[in-house]
Design goal:
- By secondary structure, the protein is α/β, with parallel strands linked by helices.
- The protein contains 23 helices and 21 strands.
- The strands form 4 sheets. It has a 7-stranded mixed beta sheet with strand order 3-2-1-4-5-10-11, sandwiched between helices. A 7-stranded mixed beta sheet has the order 14-13-12-15-16-20-21.
- Helix 10 crosses helix 19.
- The longest helix is centred in the C-terminal third of the chain and has 24 residues, at 637-660.
- It binds adenosine-5'-diphosphate (ADP).
- Adenosine-5'-diphosphate is lined by residues 16-18, 48, 81-82, 85-86, 110-114, 116-117, 120.
């Protein structure tokens, strides 16, 4: 980072607009990062109210002020609506409050309204100071010392409706809350064979409704961007729900975004949905309006990491931008922290809302971006009660799905999507039980559409998985099974051993012609240690599980002056350790996170004993080995959504190979945040020869952030 000589020496941070999970980690990161760079930092309490009123509402912070807030929901520094800040007089008072304290850098965390207000404030800054000098309220020298206000914005909003970032701070946490509610409703709905109608937040943006539907296997969704195509939408919805019941589905779930509308722009409410279910199906459906529950609760692991990274990036921006630079919004694209001109992002965001209001829905959907549209398409297919009829004359290719490696949350989700999307193509789907051992032994059976209902949300692996890697003789047996079952393509959804096994088959395709089929590997492991991808499915669930355990351990550590050494999984890869350190704030309380294979001498027990001895009477120390808990648990919303998306792309890949007569094999993965396929042939050259990890590990670039946050 190249810091400018005229960079601010004192900055302030505030949260404004609706609260969102992750605002606290963002504030913490701004404070820690500013202190790391040797500048003063202030928190403005109660948003713009505090900025206008000043006094005790603008406080200088040190590191301890933001200790222990990482895991708290909402915003501890408060947020409020301020009418005074909408007036020039109010903004003049705000400017004076800042200059009086020597502050000329501001980080605002809020929605498009808050960011618009902040931008206006910055534009008026020099005029406001001139007016203050004129009125004798500010010494000329002070005004000259702070000629411009540096401003950086971060989006805190649960709706995920802002341009300039793939994810807003708080959206993932809101999805967690929604999923908890939908999972709970699911069990009661199935018990009584009921239909539940759930309203989720999102006036102009269907993100939460769409993604929670995808992640919960909802049977119908209504979002503002995609109103039903016809006026008799209620009859269509009811016929699909009825067909689901007829084919054995025990529950129906309809998700409605707050801003759902018909094709004329009239709102569609949960009551409308309930009435049509009563009319068409004679069903007594129950309504649940999730409301403010969606905003609350402890931030998810992703939101903690995201806001930590963004808070740090915001401070770095303030220190490197010139006095006249266009104010920026910091966000995440792919997995890169990026910045873009603040007001461009605000303008584009408001444009989508306007298009929705003006019924330009194609335009709105286009502006929402590719993954939103993909997810919508996948959802539409998955919601059907049965596959679409196959066109005459099409080959019914036979695909198989198999796991390999340790269990990873999301395996069932992958299987569900793979089965349905394969059947919908008119192909046959075979499921292999017990991994490659099962494939060797011919433990393969055909699966149907309804065999996988309920799979979307369950942890573990219904098909079974293990770390068996076939030797040459076993590969020959597998070739026989593949030939006998007439398997044309294979999806391997699994971890380290699964990749090794898939590659072993691929390597022997010249020896056994039955193995000359397209194979695609889908990365699933909590360890995030696979080649050709920056991220594996399952690791987000594991991180959330670790982080919630560490939250409890931290409380115990504070209460009892105890120091903890926590051992997390990861084999030879430190991803879970670094990320859980960042997301749980292993700081000052005597919390050490250690990756299981970090060092053969400095074991968890050794470090604990060292602390015990050296701590004397100051503290005592304990170890907590989190163990296999990390591999279990129902998949997080992110893992369910990505498992479904990746599974869809893998089936598409296999179908493309088969339809075009090619037989390439590949590993799917995220590269710079985008989905890419890498040739399976390159597998050996991408992994370390003596350790269980890939040669390239991009997440290692996050270590400096951990250092700044006092974690490393
Ligand atoms: P959000 O930031 O979530 O969109 P609001 O639109 O309610 O939330 O804005 C929060 C606060 O930001 C308002 O109470 C007001 O103080 C300030 N604000 C919003 N828009 C403007 C504006 N155009 N000019 C000045 N201040 C504004």
């Amino acid at each position: 980072m190249e810091r400018r000589p005229d960079a601010p020496t004192s900055i302030a941070v505030l949260t404004s607009g609706g609260d969102a999970g992750g605002m606290n980690p963002a504030v913490r990161a701004v404070v820690r990062s500013a202190l790391h760079h040797g500048i003063d930092v202030h928190a403005v309490l109660e948003g713009y109210v505090g900025l206008v009123e000043g006094g005790d509402l603008i406080r200088r912070y040190d590191s301890t002020h933001v200790g222990g807030i990482l895991q708290r929901g909402g915003t501890v520094i408060g947020t409020a609506r301020s009418t005074a800040f909408r007036t020039r007089e109010g903004r003049r008072r705000a400017a004076r409050n800042l200059v009086d304290r020597g502050i000329d850098g501001l980080v605002v965390i809020g929605g498009d309204g808050s960011l618009t207000g902040a931008n206006l404030f910055r534009e008026e800054w020099s005029e406001l100071l001139a007016e203050l000098v004129e009125a004798g309220e500010l010494p000329r020298a002070s005004a000259e010392a702070h000629r411009s206000l540096r401003l950086v914005g971060m989006v805190g909003s649960i709706d995920n409706d802002m341009f300039g970032t793939d994810m807003t701070i708080g959206a993932d946490t809101a999805l967690h809350r929604i999923m908890e509610a939908l999972d709970a409703l699911d069990s009661t709905a199935s018990s009584h064979q009921r239909t539940f109608i759930v309203e989720v937040m999102g006036r102009h943006c269907g993100y939460l409704a769409l993604m929670s539907s995808l992640a919960s296997g909802a049977n119908w969704v209504l979002i503002p961007e995609r109103p039903p195509a016809t006026d008799d939408w209620d009859q269509l919805m009811c016929s699909v729900l009825r067909a689901g019941r007829d084919s054995g589905r025990r529950r129906n779930l309809v998700v409605v975004a707050e801003g759902a509308q018909d094709r004329h722009g009239n709102p569609i409410t949960v009551e409308d949905v309930r009435d049509s279910l009563a009319r068409e199906l004679g069903e007594d459906a129950r309504i649940t309006i999730l409301g403010h529950v969606q905003r609350g609760g402890s931030p998810s692991a992703f939101d903690r990491y995201l806001s930590t990274a963004l808070g740090n990036a915001a401070v770095e921006r303030l220190l490197t931008d010139g006095p006249d630079a266009v104010p920026q919004l910091v966000g995440i694209r792919g997995n890169q922290i990026v910045s873009s001109p603040l007001m461009d992002c605000v303008a584009k965001t408001q444009d989508v809302a306007k298009r929705i209001e003006a019924q330009d829905l194609e335009g709105a959907m286009l502006l929402r971006g590719g993954s939103f549209r993909d997810s919508y398409q996948i959802l539409v297919t998955m919601q059907q009660a049965a596959p679409r009829p196959t066109a005459a004359g099409r080959t019914r290719f036979r695909l198989a799905v198999v796991h390999g490696g340790g269990p990873a949350p999301g395996m069932n989700t992958v299987v569900r999507a793979a089965v349905r999307l394969t059947l919908d193509r008119g192909y046959t789907m075979l499921a292999v039980r017990n991994g490659f051992r099962g494939l060797r032994d011919g433990d393969v059976r055909e699966v149907g559409w309804m065999d996988v209902s309920g799979y979307v949300s369950s942890g573990g692996a219904e098909l079974g998985t293990n770390r068996y890697v076939p030797d040459r003789a076993a590969v020959a047996q597998i070739a026989e099974v593949i030939g006998a079952q007439r398997i044309n393509g294979l999806l391997m959804a699994g971890g380290w051993a699964g990749y090794a096994a898939a590659h072993a088959l691929h390597e022997q395709r010249h020896v056994h012609p039955a193995l000359d089929i397209p194979i695609v590997c889908l990365p699933m492991t909590i360890n995030n240690d696979l080649p050709a991808t920056e991220l594996t499915i399952g690791s987000d669930t594991a991180l959330n599980s670790i982080v919630s355990d560490i939250d409890k351990i931290k409380q115990s550590a504070v209460a009892s002056r105890r120091c903890f050494v926590v051992e997390v999984m990861g084999h030879d890869c430190g991803y879970l350790a670094l990320m859980s350190g960042l997301a749980s704030g292993a700081e000052r309380l005597g919390l050490v996170i250690r990756s299981e294979n970090a060092d053969s001498v400095y074991s968890t027990g050794f470090i604990r004993a060292l602390f015990e001895k050296e701590g004397g009477e100051l503290w005592d120390s304990r170890e907590a080995i989190l163990g296999h808990i990390q591999e279990g648990g129902d998949p997080s919303p992110f893992d369910r959504i990505q498992a479904t998306r990746l599974s869809a792309r893998c089936i598409e890949f296999l179908a493309e190979q088969l339809e075009s007569g090619t037989r390439a094999s590949a590993m799917i993965g995220f590269q710079s945040g985008r989905l890419q396929f890498t040739d399976l042939t390159s597998y050996p050259s991408l992994i370390e020869p003596d350790a269980q990890r890939p040669l390239e590990q991009r997440w290692m670039a996050r270590r400096p952030l951990a250092r700044i946050m006092d974690v490393w």
